[in-house]
Amino acid sequence: MERGQWRRCNGCKKPIALGAQYWVCSVSTCNRKRTGMVFCTVSCWDVHLPTANHREAWAEERTAPSTLEPEGGAESPKPPGRRRIIASARKPVAPPAPAGEVLIVASRLKEYVRSRSGFSTSDRVLAPLSEIVRRVCDEAIRNAERDGRKTLLDRDIPDPR
Length: 161
Known about the structure:
two-stranded antiparallel ribbon, two-stranded antiparallel sheet, elongated
């Protein structure tokens, strides 16, 4: 760390000076000792929100310490260790399927039809079924949006009757 620098902003990576004002996220998981997210401006805090998935959050203004004394008194600060980079636990978001792409798992569908009736299933069944699934999903998306949610729930699926 540079002299006179307390920490770096988690948004833009600019240094936050000793004694300077900074902002933290109001959500406790962002303020834990291991996480310790700090932001030099409210704009940098805003950048954090889309990836954080907080239901309700705000930026809280704080002041950085005026000196770099270790917390807990006479203990000396720990020497910097090796940084660990941990891959995100989130699965990458797949791009939406093109209109003609099959959404049905062929092997599962064929297995289901064979176990229920003993019939075989043509591969040409997959495209029309995928289109039905698309229409149902589009209606479920509209239902979730109408309720102000960004998560599809079972209650958003229209009744097939």
